[in-house]
Amino acid sequence: MQERQKDRARYFRELAQTSERYFIPYLSAFMQIGKGMDILEIGCGEGGNLLPFARLGCNVTGVDMATGKISNARRFFGEAGAEGRFIASDIFKVKELESGFDLIICHDVIEHIGDKKRFLADMLRYLKPGGFAFVAFPAWRMPFGGHQQICRSKVLSHLPFFHLLPKCLYRLVLKAGGETPERIGELMEIKDTRLPIQAFEKLLRSQTGDRTLRTVDRTLYFINPHYEVKFGLRPRRLSQLIARIPYIRDFFTTSCFYLLEG
C-alpha cells in the first residue's frame, strides 16, 4: 500500500488541495459556487473534497459507508474550523438525507458501485431540478484502473495494468504477492464493477423517464489533476484525437470528468 493511503490526515489535505485548485475552477465555469449552496458528496471518505466548498460558505453534506472515515471527517473538519454534516450510511439505505441539493459530487466512487443504473436514479432524486452532478472516475483500462495502489505489496501497488489480466490469473498474482483474502476480495469486486468510458456513456443513454441526467461537459485527462499533489505532475488533458477513439482512449485516460445536469 502506498504511504499516502495509510496517512489519512495527509490524504485529507491532498484531496482538499486538488479540490480547491481544480474541482472548484472546473465547476465555476458552469455555476456560481458560494454561500448558501447545498452540496452533497456521495462516498466522501474523510471529506477532503468538501473542505474548500465549506470554506466558501457552502452547506456541505458527506455520506460514506465507512464509519471510521466519517469519524475522521468530523474530526478533520473540526480541526480545520469548518462546518459540515457527515452521515455514515450506504447511499442506497440512508434515511436522514433530504433532496434538493444544488450540486452532487461523486469522485472516484461510481466505479465501485454494482447497480449503477439505480445509483444514477438515486443521485437524480437527491438533486434539485436544474442542479448539477459532478462525476469523476478513472477509466478502467488506464495503468491503475484496478486501484492496485491499495495493495499491501510494494511491488503490486506500483505495478501498472496487471488488473487487466483474466480474473483467475489476477487472483493468483494477488495471492502470490501476499495480499490478504479481504484485500483480494476488494480488488476482485472492483474488477467486477469496473467502468470503462463507453460503459458510462451507454449508462447515461439508457436513462428513461421525464427527468434524466444530461451531459453538460466531458473532460478526459491524460494526467489526472490529483497527480500534481501526489507526484508533482501538472495536469494534462487527453488529446482530442485519442479522446474520440473508443476503447483505445481508456488506456490513456487517468481521470474522466463529467458534469451532468438534472
From TrEMBL:
- In the UniProt record, does the keyword ATP-binding occur? no
Q: Where is the Methyltransferase domain?
A: 39-131
| Annotated SUPFAM superfamilies | S-adenosyl-L-methionine-dependent methyltransferases (SSF53335)
Xref: InterPro entries: Methyltransf_25, SAM-dependent_MTases_sf
Which terms under GO biological process does the entry name?
methylation
**Superkingdom classification of source:** Bacteria
One of the Pfam families matching this protein, by short name: Methyltransf_25
UniProtKB keywords = Methyltransferase, Transferase
Q: Listed GO molecular functions?
A: methyltransferase activity
Q: What is this protein called?
A: Class I SAM-dependent methyltransferase
State the taxonomy lineage.
Bacteria, Pseudomonadati, Bacteroidota, Bacteroidia, Bacteroidales
